[in-house]
Amino acid sequence: MTSGRQVTKIDVRPEWWDNIFAPSSCLVIITTVDHESRVNAAAFGTCTRVCHDPVHISFACGAVKDTARNVLATKEFVVNIVPFEQEILDRMLVCGLPFKAGINELEKAGLTPLASKTVKPPRIQECRSHFECRVAWTQPWLHRVMICGKVEAVSVDADCMDEKGYLVWEKAKPAHYCGHRYGGMFVPVYNAPTAAHWHYDGKDEEFRDDEDWRHAYSSTR
Amino acid sequence: MTSGRQVTKIDVRPEWWDNIFAPSSCLVIITTVDHESRVNAAAFGTCTRVCHDPVHISFACGAVKDTARNVLATKEFVVNIVPFEQEILDRMLVCGLPFKAGINELEKAGLTPLASKTVKPPRIQECRSHFECRVAWTQPWLHRVMICGKVEAVSVDADCMDEKGYLVWEKAKPAHYCGHRYGGMFVPVYNAPTAAHWHYDGKDEEFRDDEDWRHAYSSTR
Predict the structure, then answer these.
(1) Which residue of chain B is at minimal alpha-carbon distance from A203?
(2) What values do phi and psi take at A155, rounded to 5?
(3) How confident is the model over B7-47, as pLDDT tens digits?
(4) Is A89 in Cβ contact with B180 (below 8 Å)?
(5) Fewest beta carbons less than 10 Å away: which of A9, A108, A211, B58?
(6) What SS3 string covers A166-197?
(7) Quick one: which of B149, B145, B68, B60 has its CA closest to B101?
(8) Residue A216's closest chain B neighbor by CA?
(9) B contacts of A22 (beta carbons < 8 Å)
(10) Predicted model pTM
(11) pLDDT digits (tens, 9 = 90+) for B58-80
């Protein structure tokens, strides 16, 4: 457990699921199980929210990795969003070591499994939010496989979501992976969310008939 | 043009392409052309580097959007990485307005096309790096389509890459999209790249035989 953090996990209403995967791609640990219910956990920098409604999440994975094998066998996975906190980033790297199949990386890394609501793979207590997924489709190519899951349940640390269902960025602290060539380097992706502003002297006839272009970026907030 | 920025675009050697798409997912504008060579440009928060070698990039798109239609028709697209700079973020939102097919969003937004090296869609001068792609595969589902491209050429602003082919984070200033429900909000994803550190009292027999687990995260730097 992270030092002293005692926060309740709460279930997120389906209409707020899309708000909680933010930004649209961030650092995650994905948990899966094999046919003998043995847990596997691995970190991914390729995990992205790819459909708003119904919410779908995709990630790319080496085709021979335990994660790919387990997902193809069981059709389930859990996406756990990793906070930009040194202790958890450090433990995440242990998850990523090339352990043999059947070894539980959570135990090796000192991370805590927490039963999921709708699927067999566990959530990870130390992560801030959790997306329980069932496979929608998979696409193998070269030595890789793209996996896309439909979200079935979402939960979040109580202090990371406000009363209207939006992420509390500075508590959730989403992170991202700098990339393979940068070694074990990560960036915070929650600092100073900033609005862009647009101005266009438009004519209605330039736009698609069924689109309200003047309100294209209205927040639902 | 961004105020006063006069930087040469340089071609990136193939062995450095993977370094330059960093972090592994970030905010982009994707340019395409239709069969009459009319340019389309749209911003995406779902664009991710999904294979290191050869470098592949994927993104998800509404199936009826001009981008999807153009990519399916021509098999080409260019990924332009957007810097976290107010003026460009603001213009990017104009690209995202629901213009009719055949209208050139770059003209409407005041962004500058620059001929690509290997494909028909243009690069965008104001963006920091550019990934020219040919379609590897597409996967339609629901009202969406996932598009995955093999990278054919990469170019970058000269001041955004160091002499060893690594990204100069504070010049490139990659950004990300907070998400649909947050309106036109963006986060910087280049602040303070930070190393994680791992320690594991391991035994070789816990690890796959062909893996050098002690050097699992060695940077190539």
Answers:
(1) B99
(2) -135, 160
(3) 899 999 999 999 999 999 999 999 999 999 999 999 999 99
(4) no
(5) A211
(6) CECHHHHCEEEECCHHHCCEEEECCCCCEECC
(7) B68
(8) B97
(9) 178-179, 182
(10) 0.94
(11) 999 999 999 999 999 999 999 99
